[in-house]
Each structure stands twice: as C-alpha cells, then as structure tokens.
Amino acid sequence: KQPAFFLFEIFHPPEPVPLSIQGVQQEDPPDAQIMQLDNMLLCSSGGRSRRNSDDGSLEHVDYKEKLSQIREIYHAELDKYEQACNEFTSHVINLLREQSRMRPISSKEIERMVSIIHRNTCEAVMILRSMFLDARRKRRNFSKQATEILNEYFYSHLANPYPNEEVKEELAKKCGITVAQIANWFGNKRIRYKKNIAKFQEEANVYAMKTVTSVSSLSSQATSPATPNSGGVMVCGCFAGDTVGDLFKTEDRLNQHGYQSILQQHAIPSGLHSVGPSCIFQQDNLQAV
DNA sequence: GGAAATGATTGTCT
DNA sequence: AGACAATCATTTCC
C-alpha cells in the first residue's frame, strides 16, 4: 500500500546520504570549511612536522599535496551528496505525484516536502513519516466519469454485480483507479444499495435510461429494451415509483414485472430461492430464513 | 456548521 | 481469497 511503500522508500533512499557533510555544508561558508580542513591537517601532521622541522620546504609540499587531495575528496563527496539529495528529492516528488491520484496534494505541500528534505535528512524522515501517517486516510472522491462508468456497470449487472478479476482490471483502467479501489467501490455499493434500495431508485432509473439510449443507439432495429445487455433497464423499470425497502417484497415485484427474465439472461435458474450464491438477494434470503 | 455521501479500513464469516 | 457489515475519516452539499 502507498504509505507503507513510501516509508520503505524513505528509509531506504537510493544513495546513503552523508549527514555530517550536510551539516558542515549548511552551517559554514566554503571558506570556513577550507580553514577547518587546514587546521585538521595541521593537527594530524603536527607530530611529524615537529620531528622534521629541519626540512621545512619538503614538509610544505607534502602538506599542500595532502590538502588538495582532501579537498578533491571533499568536493567529490559534496557532489555525491548533492546528487543523492536531488535524486531523493525527485524521488519524493514522484511519489507525491503518484499519491496525488489518491488524495489532493497541493504544490505548496510538495514545496514544503522539498524544503524539509533539504534541511536535515534525519529530521526530514521523522517529519515525513508523521505526515504520511496522518495522511493515510486522506482520500479524494473518484471523478464523475469514473463514478459513471462504475454505476453503469453496477446497474446493468444488478442481478449479479460481482465483476470478475478481468472486468475489475478493465474498469480500473477505464476509471484510472486501482483494482483494489474497484473492489472497495463494489463492496460499498452492493451493501449500500441493498440496505436502502428505495434511496437508489432514482439513480437506478437514470442509469437504466442511459443503458436504453446507448443500446437503442447501437442497434437501430431494437424495438424492445430487453436486449441481452440491458439488464438494468428492466430492473430499474420495475423499481420506478416503488418505495419498498424490504428486499423480499422487492423481489416479488421484480418477479412480477420481468426481473425473472434478467435472471435468466444471467443463466440463473428460475425462482429467486434457487439463485446462485453470488446473488445478493439470495444471501439476504438465507440470512432472513 | 452539520448532515449526507463516499472511499477506506477492519473484523468476521464462508 | 473474497464478500459482507460496521465503522472511520474525509469530502461534498445544503
């Protein structure tokens, strides 16, 4: 899942970041750093220098050589750090962009993240961690288009609104969300629909009409809405004006007004009491009995 | 600002 | 493993 994945990435950055160098870089201007290096070198070679005090020029050359060597290493390390820091920053930005599909992320938030990374990496990890833990339940509603697609599928497969893995993947692609989100959506939809069918009547009718128009526009000779792929049409038609919340009553009405034909279309044996186990109404029957 | 809607999470069941 | 049910946390609507 995204937050966990992100945390893993943070704790395993692409390149180990040399914290000590970062601290030096920020706290001291370049000149002060060079001075520091000079002093360190003087201290480390102090003993030898005293022992060879009679050969001052040789010692000086040796010192200069060492100094430039260390400077080279230092700058190489500094470059490495900057590169790692930039890589890490772009890495975080990419992850944020990915996450922006799941929850709203403003450009300000991204800027803040970047400034945090450039402060102190250790501190940054802690801040970022808490921020992501806080944000783990933040969400964004699906786009209208995505909801349309999902509802269209749901209401045109009302007899068996259980898309298989293949269909889920296809829907996920179409809607620009994950398969897990598709599963969540159908889980929520089934349960909420079943809990209060009356509330969803209007919506069901809307999508039924959509199916009618799309089907009739596809086949000009179709005079009846009961074409193989228009299951929702019949279902919603018989819901119109129905205020019954009780599933059993609803089922009776469905049987009376043609829901049976939809069940048959889905290769479900006649009579709701022998409907396959994947039918939501069957499950309710079992629970009620 | 509060209610309703909605996506996600968690625990339980089969 | 997948479905359901309850619930949480956020967003949207009035």
Automatic annotation (TrEMBL):
| Domain PBC as annotated: residue spans | 1-145
Q: Does the keyword Mitochondrion apply?
A: no
- UniProt cross-references to Pfam families, sorted A to Z: Homeobox_KN, PBC
The UniProt record lists the Homeobox domain at 133-196
Q: Name one GO cellular component term.
A: nucleus
The record ties this protein, via Gene3D superfamilies, to: Homeodomain-like
Compartments where located: Nucleus
Matches recorded under InterPro entries: HD (IPR001356), Homeobox_CS (IPR017970), Homeodomain-like_sf (IPR009057), KN_HD (IPR008422), PBX_PBC_dom (IPR005542), TALE_homeobox (IPR050224)
Query: Which residues, as ranges, make up the DNA-binding region of this protein?
Result: 135-197
Q: What superkingdom does the record give? A: Eukaryota
Q: Name one GO molecular function term.
A: DNA-binding transcription factor activity, RNA polymerase II-specific
Q: Which keywords has UniProt assigned to this entry?
A: DNA-binding, Homeobox, Nucleus, Transcription, Transcription regulation
User: Which PROSITE patterns does the record match to this protein?
Assistant: HOMEOBOX_1, HOMEOBOX_2, PBC
Cell membrane listed as a keyword = no
Record-linked SMART domains: HOX
The family annotation for this protein states: Belongs to the TALE/PBX homeobox family.
Q: What is this protein called?
A: Uncharacterized protein
This chain's source organism reads Neolamprologus brichardi (Fairy cichlid)
Q: What is the lineage of its organism?
A: Eukaryota, Metazoa, Chordata, Craniata, Vertebrata
